User: Fold these one by one.
Assistant:
Number 1:
Amino acid sequence: MSAMIDIAGLSKWYGATQVLKDCSAAIATAEVVVVCGPSGSGKSTLLKCVNGLEPFQQGRISVDGVSVGDPKTNLPRLRARIGMVFQHFELFPHLSVRRNLTLPQIKVLRRSADEANAKALRLLERVGLSAYADKFPGELSGGQQQRVAIARSLAMDPIAMLFDEPTSALDPEMIQEVLDVMVGLARDGMTMIVVTHEMGFARKVAHRVVFMDKGEIVENAPTADFFENPGSERARLFLSKILQH
Amino acid sequence: MFAHFDFGEIVRSLPYLFYTGMTFTLLLTALATFIGIVVGTLLALMRLSGISFLTVPAAAYVNLMRSVPFVLMIFWFYFLVPYIGQWVTFSAQPLQVGAFASSLVTFSLFEAAFFCEIMRAGIQSIPRGQVAAAQALGMTYPMVMGYVVLPQAFRNMVPVLLTQTIVLFQDTSLVYVISVTDFLGAASKVAERDGRLVEMYTFAACVYFVISFAASRAVQVLQRRTAIIR
Ligand SMILES: Nc1ncnc2c1ncn2[C@@H]1O[C@H](COP(=O)(O)OP(=O)(O)OP(=O)(O)O)[C@@H](O)[C@H]1O
Ligand SMILES: [Mg+2]
């Protein structure tokens, strides 16, 4: 298997502070990787480097063979092929749910309005929200908004999906409905990088777990190994803290 | 004392006051607002671009407009626009620019500086995550701005923009310095002709007050109606 996402020797600085230190990881097609680690360890920054939302100073990232850091790369075109789901959903509040799903398809992928609409309704159905097509994001619960956000990403037919703490802004009773959608995606063979502290989700669908601390990838192990036998003291400490809850 | 007042003249001159005067005032207000918002939005995008050859001139323009007395600007443009026109069009004589065109250029450029600052605040009020989400969907800068940021910024700023328009509506009366017949100009012509200064200016003040007051109440109602549910 060739790597869908290949990160090699990635370093990034914000001004004088280094936030990513020589990070390397390869994510194969249809692989699900969970990234965890303490707050400020650089998880979000790593994801943003993968789709070029943040520039980086050293190293190389390629997605489906396209080099992200290459100045010649058409970043908008690359990003259109990589789905991203945010902690705070980031639906466009001035547009209806339907329009949130159709606008990027029409403007970015140049699909016809009919095609975009059909696709939107199919995906809303998939996340169980067909009845909400003509509501506005502000009228939906957090869990519903996050499912719409996932559907909006899927409407672009992404080759991979990045999730940045998709459930950490949700009320506890809404977490499961979002995780269920993500489990479905993983089972369907989507390539996924998921930053999350939902260890139940990790155990269930992740092929590998990456543990980050202070900008470094400290551990990158098959899921079972990570939980049974973490190789580093830092990961062990982190796990014991997080599994207490 | 009102016994000595004669409001009859006002009634007879209403068609002139409103048809000639108020039409000019409202047209100038509406067009200058429209052009001012368009130019102001472009200036705001320049100021926020982070590219110094765009930010520096935009900031300089805004500061210049805000530190020159407006009446001076009106005068200055009135005498200068014909020569700028001549220079731009390579014509032999100064361009014939009417008082309306001259005032429109002045007001639009002046208001653009204010609308720039309003739109800049509006754009900055949109969470960064909205931009990131739009970019992550593959949108280019013009798409991010055109479909995601500016519509929301504009919606958030409608009350402030309209309030500025009401100020502009009142400021249009300054065109009297170049002898234009706007509403106040029409009123003062009638007043001079009939020697009824007090009645006429009182009436004009009432009209400005009623329109401005009604408009600002309307803005408040609109503000409640158009707020984006978050
Ligand atoms: N725009 C920025 N400018 C400067 N420093 C930043 C910026 N964004 C993030 N940082 C810093 O980079 C480091 C990594 O941040 P990042 O958001 O990637 O961490 P994280 O692992 O996602 O944390 P969290 O679990 O809190 O989301 C932090 O120390 C943060 O303060
Ligand atoms: Mg984060």
Number 2:
Amino acid sequence: MKRVFRLEKIFIAQYLKQTMEYKADFFVGVFGVLLNQGLNLVFLKIIFSQIPKLDGWSLQQIIFIYGFALIPKGLDHLFFDNLWAVGQRLVRKGEFDKYLTRPVNPLFHVLVETFQVDAFGELLVGVILLVMTTGTVHWTWVKLLLFILSIPFVTSIYTSLKIGTSAMAFWMKKSGAISYLFYMFNDFARYPVSIFNNVVRWIISFIIPFAFTAFYPASYFLTDKNIVFNLGGLVVISIVLLFISISIWNKGISAYESAGS
Amino acid sequence: MSSYLRRYRPFIVAGIEEATVYRSNFIIYLLGNTLGAFVTYFLWKAVFTSSANSSLNGFTFPEMVLYIFLSFFTGVLTSSDSSTSVGDEVKDGSIAMRILKPINFAANYFYEEIGNKIINLGLLMLPFFGGIVAYQILGQNAPAVNWINILLYFISAIIAYLINFYFNLCFSFTAFFFRNLWGSNLLKNALVVFMSGTLVPLAFFPAVLQNIFKFLPFSSLLYTPVMMYLGKYSPKMIVSMLFLQIFWLVFFIVLSKIIWYFAIKHLSIQGG
Amino acid sequence: MAMIEVSHLQKNFKKTTKAPGLIGAFQSLIHPQYQTFEAVKDLSFEVPQGEILGFIGANGAGKSTTIKMLTGILAPTSGFCRINGKIPQEDRKNYVKDIGVVFGQRTQLWWDLPLQETYSVLKEIYDVPEKEFHKRMDFLNEILDLNEFITSPVRTLSLGQRMRADIAASLLHNPKVLFLDEPTIGLDVSVKDNIRKAIAQINHEEKTTIVLTTHDLDDIELLCNRIFMIDRGSEVFDGTIKELKGQFGRIREVEFELVDSNDGAKLDYSTLPVPVEIRQTGNTVVAKFDDSLVSVPNILKLTLAQVEVKDISVKDADIEEIVRQIFRKEAQEHEQLS
Ligand SMILES: Nc1ncnc2c1ncn2[C@@H]1O[C@H](COP(=O)(O)OP(=O)(O)O)[C@@H](O)[C@H]1O
Ligand SMILES: [Mg+2]
């Protein structure tokens, strides 16, 4: 375990050095994320200019859900973004070879290799939104603790989905599209599930459980209801998902074909 | 003309072949985009349910449904990413392989993309467009099918595609400044999605913004064709909107030539 | 026990087959067709510790695929390999601690960072102790001349510098087995020379077992004790260079230095039952012949009887010539079959 942190530290340091070689990139990345999130908020504002409440939820509450969603998403983006490269490039071009010839777990190696500073944009917006809407929640110490504890589990859902879908590349050569498809489901997660029809609701709750990355846990903090389902479900689902995705990944590695050279 | 086509045919074929090699990939991408459309659909459905009015900013719910799915269809129809690598290729010198051939540099990418599009649209046309028309015929209170509007839509959408192609070509030269194409693309896409009306019809914006957005090139990329389909423009408006589109098309063609001229000069000085 | 033990190793790839052009593209869109392709067929061999094995074969023969199986990157379709007592695919993490790998066409260096940063990351990955690391870097610096570019970002290195850096990276953790896939590809003569010397020195000083694939037959001649040749995935030859020459090396050359260059015209081998090819440049005459049909002493006797000679050298069969011959023969057989 000590070695894990040591390697993580070293890789982050290396990655930061790399990033500093291209300073303009850092700013365009962070600014891109900020703008993207900002425009999403304008979109919410426009929608709420037409109606007082969306299916019973106020703008403040929706923004809280939104802000909550951004924190784990940003963390996953910050630490584990290299998984995209597995699905897009590393496997198809045979660059994945490198990870297999090193005495480190390949998944771990892939995960720690990048440190995507763009994600600070998401984290920043997330924190700002949460602070802005913190009044909508009746905070207690227990709730605050649960709030903090839920973040790693949510992050793990994001990361697991990325691990599982990018591992498909071991069979398909290129699986960026699948990861993308999964990510599109992510958009559902930011709104109250009650606005969707049953099929969609079921999918985002149990198949591609993005509803647990934002709406369910956030709705517990907002309404104090259904802790067992909203938070207990989160824990169960994130553990199951991590387990499934790691076994897909391990199967994938033995199916890896490299690339002709 | 036929010799012209013969010269570019290989590029079209290459585009088609590439599209088929990763066929599962683009079917999945399409599914992803469709999902996005459904999120928007459910959201607006909830908005219309929560609202006391039956029409918002001139859009009835059935019109909004058409708007959502048409804007996604138009997005796919007019999408253009073949040229996004031009800037990169110029920067690292690999463009040399392309400009050695005695053909227009943009045509290289253009025809490859046409090949790609043939496959894309072949797959997409029936389910999507058929679905839209079916909704118009069967849906309650849905606007009736109007063939003239459909024709206008396709004319406008094709111009929109061309604008998008040259716009992305120009944009690709930002590769000279950034290596992080993910970041700069995110930046561009966020702006385009917003100002082209993909996320929300421009009619929902405050009047000041609406007027600004109307004359920026982005509304020509999506809002204009979709509004033509919905029959929201008077004949006079239709003509002026088409002219505006053509203006932007010419603008980006000229701009791309200018940028190209300087980029190539840079290339020959730097030696690639 | 042998350091490397390979038994009936086989690798099949599934390939999509597609008719050319548009029609083919559409066909494969609707109904893709697959075909099994045997990239490596039933290879068996052993390599004792400290040997340098030269793995040769034409492009696409299956060399890289074999190396990838030996290094644990690819899982064999059937058969197995055991190296340093371990099966790479089963005990991967432990196994790779003791091997070094270089793929000449790829790099494992961090592209945007100064070279020495790569080494300090690798030091952590391989858990090399600080003291050991410095000693090792000094040694690698000395044999591969890294000092002149160790502070430059990797993307600015020339191909030759990059290759030296990559080889050093693969040696940092003092591996027992080193796999080099085309380590001299695209390099100029002096860099090749430097790299060969380094490989020989590593092998000599540390008894490192080395498997080396190459197109460059000088590499083989200067470095390898033993050659393993494959073609279209199958073994065609396994043995020492001497055996290769003995088995296939019938063409020999004898070089004479004449006292008087005009004597060249006097030379006449028509009394021999086989043709002898003569080449003259200045005072030097080279006679080329098949030594299974006429012996070297015979040629010498005949020559000395006809002209006055200052110096004689008998050249071994050129390995390049032999390999060319084998491939030509193979190609002919192949043509006849199909
Ligand atoms: N990942 C792969 N998928 C499919 N075919 C491959 C793959 N890797 C190699 N091949 C095929 O296997 C054969 C042997 O390739 P390789 O081992 O790279 O040859 P060499 O290194 O001897 O030039 C080639 O015909 C190549 O096309
Ligand atoms: Mg090879």
